[in-house]
Amino acid sequence: MPEAQATPRTEEKSSVTAVPQVVEAAHNHFRDPKNFINRELSWLAFNQRVLEEAQDPAQPLIERVKFLTIFSSNLDEFFEIRVAGIKQQIESETSDLGPDGLSPTELFDRIQKTVRQLVATQYALWKNELQPELAKNGIYVREMVELSAKRAAWANRYFHQEVLPMLTPLAVDASHPFPHLLNRSHNLLVRAKTRRRGEPLHAIVQVPRVVPRLILMPRGTGANEPWEYIYLASLIKQHIGELFPGLILDGVHAFRVTRNSDLYIDDEEAENLLRTIEQELRRSSRGNAVRLEVEADCPKDFLELLLDFFNLSEPDACKLDGPLSMTHLLPLVTNDAFAKLKDRPFQPARDPALPPHVDFFEVLRRQDVLLHHPYDSYDQIVELAETAAKDPQVLAIKITLYRTSGDSPIVEALIDAANAGKQVTAIVELRARFDEASNIQWARRLEEAGAHVIYGVVGLKTHCKALLIVRRDADELRRYVHLATGNYHPRTARIYTDFSLLTSEPQLSEEVATVFNTLTGLAGYPGLKKMMVAPFDMHSRLIKLIERERDNAVAGKPARIVAKMNALVDLEIIEKLYEASCADVTIDLVVRGICCLRPKVPSLSENIRVISIVGRFLEHSRVFYFENAGQPRVFLSSADWMPRNFYRRIELAFPVETQALRDQIINDVIPAFLNDRVKARELQADGTYRRLKPEGEEPRRQAQWQFREVSRERTKKLSGSTKKARADRLVPIAVVHESRVAGAPKSET
Predict the structure, then answer these.
(1) Which helix (H) or strand (E) holds 181?
(2) Are strands 169-172 and 186-194 parallel, antiparallel or unpaired?
(3) Reported confidence tier of residue 522, pLDDT bands at 50, 70, 90
């Protein structure tokens, strides 16, 4: 794709109104390091909010365990990517300071201190609160010494039948170098002596990944029979002597290593991107070690030996008083028998505009449809793709794929469409972090079916979410479009909050076609009127929109900004928000994770409020609202406000222009987030978060609960409508039509 870019056609022209004196003065200290929160420390604050959900006694017990596992999984990725990068900066003796004024070494020290405090809290919570609560409910995670004779006998049989054949002791000596252990691998370091004594011998025993890390022991048939689990590593330690006959064991200690897992791809040098990424995936599991986790009772000499093996120092090690990873507790979360200890089951509703067996194309010719997932079922998006694949009038399908499930029905539909002779084009992002291998498999299957597969764009990640269907209708060739804030991933669509916009509006659908042609062809980006596209014009146009609110406020016109996203990092955007705040623009930011903006600072950001919502579902949607002097503009987007989204990714921000749908977001969705008093935390000027609670007689509002209840009520109405329709079959024909019309539910869109 050519680098040349045309000047975008935009209607967002900044007012010529002079910036007030207070803004001019504020410019002098906008870039003061004290005005920015460090990105990595902000992320750790987000993970602390995840941990707080595990600490919340109001949560169902198993949900608390779930948040404990999420906290650990998040922290693993943080070390694999972010801490790995900081360590590389330190090793290269980089002296550059971040916007917050911290050097890489200072930041690393702050991270280690914060992580140790959080992990200590996590393990104390597990040991002192969650484990006892599980025991009260008949669920036990046992140590081997706690097993009854009967249980111990079963564990012995299980070890010899299921585990022992998998184990391979690896000697470590002059002729056997220390093995290169995989990322996140769980291992045992064994020290032994011969009966003639002599120098101590060392060996590594890898805990097999194909055996469950948390083993469920057999239960009786009684309703009150306990659920008992044991750790795989503890079971192996109990029988470790059998792997070293004739030796005297002098110690066995479990450890876990985390490695640098970022991929290093030079697009200009990689002739075959797919093959290069496959090679990098194999390498990434063997990257440099960045963290070592050991058991709390691991002796100093064992720890020093491991640190030496992995070329780490003492600050890189963490002693854990419990399982080496709380992710091993996942079997407790997935056990359906514990349903009473989980959140109430939730079944997404169908949007009334798209009932079962609907003609999607007929509906979209009449109206746009806005879906709010997971409250609105993602099945409707899957059905749209499947319908397009089967419809003989559909001639072409184009899609961007960043992440999708391993058994993706959407990709299967694309394969069916290609097999049926339709023109299918898929832009597959091979570098979607931690989903690279899955995307490679799908890309190959699509190619085998005859689809045209494009492996992203050189130098950029394709992160936008767009589906374009070209259909020969009775009157003309028409485009149908699905644009979204979330991935084409039916599984995560059940637990991530996202928006989908379905439309056949001519200008917007033409712009989507232009984006696809820009990504797949030779032409430069021509500039669009309705949509903002990164890396071409999204950043500059967002700045113009913020400046317009600033200038409207100066002119005495209505001015307000509400933006919901996952992360706010971009310095220029933050400075413009500070500038707007100094001009008395009211700004509400709903930022789930990283936020480098510091709110509530006098003469800088006192008009900016930042909240974060961490709840049952992962807040993933991006919504941008601009008051625009009483003519509100609403955009949905795939992009967070981060440099990587603005400059290193293909992203879309698309307008919601149908008044009913725009009003739904303005009057229902945004207020629900801003008025949450259960799961919302507000960012303070010092970088800490304060959990919001109802004040006075204020009700306990919770956004996600509110959306779920609306969805449940809709399901009830639809169910009642269906039952009524069945009963109407017994009514005389003369009154059937009138009865059905009267009982029809109103569309919430």
Answers:
(1) none
(2) unpaired
(3) low
> Rounded to the nearest 10 degrees, how much is the dihedral formed by the CA atoms of 359, 362, 366, 368?
50
Distance between CA atoms of residues 500 and 616, nearest Å: 20
pLDDT tens-digit map of 273-303: 445 444 544 444 457 899 999 999 999 999 9
Would you place residue 736 in the very low, low, confident or very high pLDDT band (cuts 50, 70, 90)? Answer: very low
Give the per-residue pLDDT at 725: 46
Give the pLDDT of residue 740.
23
CA proximity to 645, closest of 562, 544, 533, 501: 533
Contact 63, 342 (CB under 8 A): yes
Q: Which fold has domain 39-341?
A: polyphosphate kinase like (3.30.1840)
Q: In 10 A of CB 112, how many CB atoms?
A: 15
Count CA atoms closer than 13 A to 83's CA, side-chain side. Answer: 26
Q: Measuring CA to CA, how many Å separate 267 from each of 64, 282, 456?
A: 43, 18, 10
According to the model, what pLDDT value does residue 743 have? 33
Average pLDDT over residues 631-649: 96
Give the residue among 8, 11, 6, 9 at the shortest CA–CA distance from 626: 11
**pLDDT grade for 405, boundaries at 50, 70 and 90:** low
The helix (run of H) or strand (run of E) holding residue 630 is: none
Q: Which residues are catalytic?
A: 463
Matching CATH topology for 21-30+532-701 and 360-520? yes
SS3 211: coil
Separation CA 400–CA 408 (nearest Å):
14
CA 738 from centroid of its chain's CA atoms: 48
Q: Is the CATH code 3.50.50.60 the one for domain 360-520?
A: no
User: Where do the structural domains in the chain lie, given as residue ranges?
Assistant: 21-30+532-701, 39-341, 360-520, 707-743
Confidence of residue 255 (pLDDT cuts 50, 70, 90): very high
Distance between CA atoms of residues 225 and 140, nearest Å:
11
- The SS3 call for residue 712 is helix
* Number of Cβ atoms within 10 Å of the Cβ of 319: 16
Residue 119 CA to residue 122 CA, distance in Å, equals: 5
462 three-state secondary structure? strand
> What are 307-317's pLDDT values in tens digits?
999 999 999 99
For residue 747, name the pLDDT band (cuts at 50, 70, 90): very low
Contact 324, 292 (CB under 8 A): no
Residues with Cβ < 8 Å from 639, sequence gap 6 or more?
463, 534, 538, 565, 622, 645, 646, 649, 651, 652, 653
What lies within 8 Å, CB to CB, of 92 at 6+ separation is none
Separation of alpha carbons 528 and 699, rounded Å? 44
Per 3-state DSSP, the chain is made up of helix, strand and coil in percentages (nearest 5) of 40, 20, 35
What DSSP designation does 687 have?
Answer: S
Can you tell me the distance from the alpha carbon of 232 to that of 66, in angstroms, rounded to the nearest whole number? Answer: 20
39-55 and 61-77 helices cross at what angle (nearest 10)?
160
Distance CA 109, CA 107 (A): 5
Q: Does domain 21-30+532-701 have CATH number 2.60.40.1880?
A: no
What mean pLDDT comes out for the span 183-195?
89
Cross-strand bridge partners of residue 216: 229
The pLDDT of 507-515, averaged and rounded, is: 96
Average pLDDT in the chain = 86
